[in-house]
Design goal:
Blueprint lengths: L8 E4 L9 H10 L5 E7 L6 E2 L2 H10 L4 E6 L7 H7 L3 E5 H4 L2 H14 L2 E6 L17 E5 L15 H12 L8 E5 L7 H7 L3 E4 L10 H12 L1
Parallel strand pairs: 1-9, 2-4, 4-5, 5-6, 6-7, 7-8, 8-9
Antiparallel strand pairs: 2-3
Helix pairs in contact: 3-5
The structure holds D-xylitol-5-phosphate and zinc ion.
The site of D-xylitol-5-phosphate (DX5) has 22 residues, from strand 2 and strand 9.
Length: 229
Amino acid sequence: MAPDPAPVLIAPSILAADPGALSAAVRAAEDAGADAIHVDVMDGQFVPEIAFGRRWVEALRNATRLPLDVHLMVANPRQHVEAFASAGAQWVTVHAEAAGSVEELRLTVEAVNRSGARAGVALKPATQPDVLDRVWDVLDLVLVMTVEPGYSGQTFMRDQLAKIERIRQQLGRRATAGEVLIAVDGGIDEHTLSGCVSAGARYLVAGSSVYSSRRSVAEGIAALRAAIG
Ligand code: DX5
Ligand code: ZN
């Protein structure tokens, strides 16, 4: 099946930026034509590290006009949804595994809907897309993790391409096809993105390929755009 011509969006992940210069990092991404800013929230339980609470999202909200896409890598995500939406997140993505059951996942996604943010569900590499069966009608985005969540700078997991393809096929069979964005997160650079886009991804989260000591943010985003074609 040929990939559809929908635009491919780029969201730099500020987890990979200099923590002492986050405002400058988001402005550089905005100036370079990024489509959103991806903010990884970690609680030290769902993943080992701790990163970015609600007040960071408020500060980033004041530093850029770009949409903020908050990726909640936290246990009990439902209890945190409203705080991040009211802090200024336009997108709130929760992990299916953190919800614990399909019922709780549905309640969590509905809480995102009520908050006014757009709702995403992230899947760890071992999680199959069947967990989405009860939430397709309330979802805006599926985030396929192409590394184990927790750190920037890991190696892209090529075996996740089949999952992206499967999700695209499932979406194609639904009446609402085209309304749910497929996003990828982890190890995305100018070499790995084309397989994701061919498989159906239209939203690329990119950490260390944008925030790198090797090149400027503008060069990094330009390299990604060039590879998208
Ligand atoms: C990993 C995070 C990613 C990370 C991506 O758990 O969810 O958003 O910052 O960084 P790279 O692109 O370097 O893998
Ligand atoms: Zn992320």
